[in-house]
Amino acid sequence: MVVCGDDGLAHRLAAELRGVYGEQVTLVVPASERSVRPPVVVRARAASALLDRVVTAAAGLTGNGNSAAAVPAAGEPPGGIRLMEAAEPNEAALAGAGVERADALALVYDDDETNIRAALTARRLNPRLRLVLRLYNRRLGQHIEELLDQAAALAAGAAADGTGFDASTTVLSDADTAAPALAATALTGTSKVLQTGGLLLRAVERPPAGAGASADPSLATLALLSPTDASGPGGDQGPTLLPDAAAVREGGARATVVLEQVSYAGPPLPDGRGVMPWFASLFSRRLRWSLAGMVGCVVALAVALWLVTGIHPLRAFYLTLLDLFAIDDPAIGESVGRQILQLLSGLAGLLLLPVLLAAVLEALGTFRTASSLRKPPRGLGGHVVLLGLGKIGTRVLTRLRELNIPVVCVESDPEARGLATARRLRVPVVLGDVTQEGVLEAAKIHRAHALLAVTSADTTNLEAVLYARAVRPDLRVVLRLYDDDFATAVYRTLRAAHPRASTRSRSVSHLAAPAFAGAMMGRQILGAFPVERRVLLFAAVDVAGHPQLEGRTVGEAFRAGSWRVLAREESGDSPGLMWDLPDTYVLHASDRVVLAATRRGLAELLGRRGRAAA
User: Fold this and answer.
1) Looking at the chain, which terminus has fewer C-beta neighbours within 10 angstroms, N or C?
2) Alpha-helical runs (H) found in 369-438
């Protein structure tokens, strides 16, 4: 695997490929990046067993900075991350990085033109290469993806053995790939999620059944964790990936890892589908109470008139309304009770005039702002407060609403790019500087479920989180920070200051790296979940051409410790994923399934036995 970039995403991606997927990685960075410390995750994983060793090849580096270093020295240990210098990813740099022999190349420079130029050069050097590009312009990215895929298809048709290799091109945006993780972090506190079929999935650790937890048959058991009692039988046993039913029963004293859908369990956003929704949206709560009080007074006066005079109730109500609007004759010569009630009805009519005027003004104001930004509904609670509607914030907002999660946005720029999206999705927005007093209160932060601070300014995000914690110490907060070391320091400090609250500080590169790594492994790879010192891969595979799947039932296709079919893609009018497949369902050649597999199992299933990792 070759990774070329000039910021923290390149380091993160190299660490993900090596630490999670166990791949050999060459990292190409500009000369100025060599003196910059890699992100904290690289240093942490280098100290753990996830990374064998991080090797920097200082020998053979060219002195002019325009070409890459030579291949690693013969004595360099295999399996590490080889660091190389190159001012730009030109042909000499890519050749020096071994692109002709590589399986995949990731171009994650901050400049779109640099990535496109390098991708065209790499496709010419190696038509079989899997390409992953980081582009901010999504429309241009679609065209580039089609162009490079077409070039790879032509090269495959011209080659004598040009069948059977994956030369796909995948164009990703760090904003798009980080949005699902940010949304999941706000809901569940974890950013390790899997996105497939419009769903967000996460791996959840369940306590042993003997510890009081009841088994949930609707969730697939992905792994049995290592026994907690190392002195007992099997105490030195590692995790068991994809166990069968017998292994699950025998491992009752071991914690399990199951797959769970990320969903929102809080109160729903008021959407106008309640009792008299139009009335509640037109008038404020105080005005509604005033109108209810006036109606109560009219009813009370009508009942009193009926009891005093003994006339029919409907006539008593009619006379009361006439007295209320001062269009009835004076009650001269009638009983004292009738005269007192007429005076009280006239007084109520005077009090009704300002209430009616306020109702008209509020209704006009509501109609005037119907096409503008919505304000947070009265009584809203259990929602997510999203700070910032820039590139990242807009993607996060879209993902949250796809999950039907109530959101209130806060934005200081009235021309922000995400305001049009918020208006289209009818999401409440508070315009104002989040650092000013009263802005977060207007977003109902005291009744919110979580706070997502994703503005482009680290200090603004940090200040907003600190202020929100002052209002609600138990509030779940997620803040986006550019620098990984700074994010780690902020997380540790906030965690120590508020141990009972959920705190997550993440950089976009940290959240985007898993998606880029999965794309480098091939389009069929959906993601990966680490399980202790091992890893589970999730892939979408066509049943056709795989004798281990085609014509077999789901139960027969399951191979303990290797792979397990989890869902089947549905086509037609309502495409999606069908979960909870019965073991008796027969897999047909036209089916496409989502399965969990070990690295070795997936390599065997896809016919890559020579490259299977331990």
Assistant:
1) C
2) 391-402, 419-424
